[in-house]
């Protein structure tokens, strides 16, 4: 089947998604909407999209749009994901799905009530690198998992920094990229314990806040099921080395370039380093023949009947957002 996509917003992440549709097997671009008709028209021309709209409601009324990709600023996700569901459109919404658990549950209920597909766009979960990581954990390659260390942090400038630093737009590193750190840590615990949609029993956090209370750099500690401790770090004002480390009783796993760093780049292989305790490091190459966003679009098409992704379930999304809320509260507690 071919899924006809409408892009709800025309920012930088929508640019990447639009370009990626060309290599998808089941997707095509039908329309794009932006707050400015001129901006939408320019975007449509660049990506050879048949129709453009100067407003989101018009796109949702388009009968030739089957699914929408919501990439508005974070606080607008809930409103437009719900409106899309009510218009009978399938929904792929950028992470975080919403800025609160309450809003996430409202979006999920709208998808359930209107019988449409809904997925939070954690594209890294679909990459073969992630699948291999979980396979190594579940196989016992490093014994019993004891600790996780995840970092996603960068330094941005200009208009992008203005957006991320704006509290009215859901600013801060925790919501922008810390959501990946939490998701990975929880995924490791799930793979190690077999428990679905795990949540930490304890969340400790510290951050460097700007004058508006926005977290520029944030670090956290999570106590997860299985006796696992996770150390997580994120930010948008400090370039750190993005990585995933998983420590077990018989060795460790290291990913120096997590798949979320690939963006529109399509490295055919990525590497996971397995180091047994007292042994030599072994580089495990993971092949990927399709880019992240194309993989994401096809994943939606392939799981429409189930109405949710088996890799990013609604329950998992709510668990992640609840943890983000707790981390955000912890870094702002005197």
Supply database-style keywords.
single chain; 334 residues; alpha/beta; eight-stranded mixed beta sheet; 14 strands; 35% helix; globular
Structure, described:
- The protein contains 10 helices and 14 strands.
- It has 334 residues and is of the alpha/beta class.
- The strands form 2 sheets. Strands 8-9-10-7-11-12-13-14 form an 8-stranded mixed β-sheet, covered by helices on one side.
- Helix 4 (77-86) packs parallel to helix 5, helix 5 packs antiparallel against helix 10 and helix 8 (173-193) packs across helix 10.
- The mean pLDDT is 95.
Whole-number mean pLDDT: 95
Order of helices and strands: EHEHEHEHEHEHEHHEEEEEEEHH
| Cα separation of the termini | 54 Å
Q: Cα-atom Rg, whole angstroms?
A: 20 Å
Query: How big a fraction of the residues is strand?
Result: 25-35%
Q: What spatial order of strands do you see in the largest sheet?
A: 8-9-10-7-11-12-13-14
Main β-sheet description: 8 strands, mixed
Determine the structural class based on helices, strands and strand pairing. Answer: alpha/beta
DSSP strand tally: 14
Gross morphology: globular
> Share of helix among residues?
25-40%
Count of discrete alpha- or pi-helical segments spanning 4 or more residues = 10
Low-confidence residue ranges: none
